[in-house]
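<purpose> Linking amino acid order to shape
<body> The protein record starts here
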Amino acid sequence: MGEKPESNVDECMHADIPRALYERVEEYCKSRGIAPGEFILDAVSEKLSSIHRERRKKPRL
């Protein structure tokens, strides 16, 4: 009864992206032949990775 459902790796989350920005993403993706969702996922992943690298550069006490 109180069991948590198993987490699905392919679960989706929605984000509000301003229409003007999304249209720019769509235009860019069309010219490169990639899906906007793939582009957005890669962009978020790269940003998180760069934040992690920046934090690792700071000296630890």
